[in-house]
Amino acid sequence: MTMPKQEAKPLERDPLSSGDRGAVTPAVGVSDVSVRFRGKNRDVTALRDVSLDVAPGEFVALVGPSGCGKSTLLKLVAGLLKPSTGEVRLGGEQVKGPRHDIGYVFQRAALLEWRSARRNILLQAEIRKMPAARARERVDALIRMTGLDGFEDAYPHELSGGMQQRVALCRALLHEPPVLLMDEPFGALDALTREQMNMELNRIWRETGTTVLLVTHSISEAVYLADRVVVMSPRPGTITEIIEVGLDAEREYGETLGRPEFRDAAAHIRDLLGAASAHD
Ligand SMILES: Nc1ncnc2c1ncn2[C@@H]1O[C@H](COP(=O)(O)OP(=O)(O)O)[C@@H](O)[C@H]1O
Ligand SMILES: [Mg+2]
Hints:
Low-confidence stretches: 5-19
Pfam families: ABC_tran
Keywords: ATP-binding, Nucleotide-binding, Transport
GO molecular function, one term: ATP binding
Number of domains: 2
CATH architecture of the largest domain: 3-Layer(aba) Sandwich
Organism: Streptomyces sp. 900116325
Radius of gyration: 19 Å
Bound molecules: adenosine-5'-diphosphate, magnesium ion
Number of helices: 8
Order of helices and strands: EEEEHEEEHHHEHEHEEHH
Number of strands: 11
Structural class: alpha/beta
Mean pLDDT: 90
Protein name: ABC transporter ATP-binding protein
């Protein structure tokens, strides 16, 4: 299969046509967004004219050089930052302040050392005042889904880096958010653990049907996991190109990495980023 490419400019979509992403309300809608940070001596334009629609259930990866505004883009979606111009929508509704219906996973798991794995996950329920019975049910299901069985009562210092990130993922998914934001979640893990987490995330994404926006520096991680990979330019961050990966949702790791669709997409993204600005 060849790899269809899309122009980064806002897509003209006919809302009445069926079978394309424009036919449904995007889970995440970013329209003509720019972000400028005002500094003492100079202003920094972090993002310029960024437009991106993410369909419900879609997995989109963002790659680009350091400082190109990837984290800024996630913060806009979470409502932690306001765009200088343009608009961000979640499920069709404009984001006007911090959103509690999203899940967020960072590079560091940021677990509370004095709480067990289970009680770290339950923190989300306490913050959101979820009914206790539902929270317990969700925790049990997520612990099984992420393979944390047997480690529920362990404290963070007793868990490996991969397990700590699984706990962070469970915490982010507890309230069944329609959108999961992940900012280099596996960047601190060793290569083998990272591969394993990639396989698990692919399965969890398929099982939960949640929309995922993942920032990563790894081209192979982006291509293995995503439906589409958004390649960004150096600051001020703009979208250089959006690559459709064209693989089935269920992806066996080794087999997928050997597929022509995977290799073509990865090679193309590497070209776009330039050898110097990306490491894998
Ligand atoms: N709160 C802030 N105030 C000022 N500048 C910021 C702030 N947050 C980010 N920046 C700047 O905006 C640019 C984009 O940052 P960021 O989104 O963190 O990039 P990335 O995640 O792609 O590495 C960088 O130049 C960064 O220094
Ligand atoms: Mg960042």
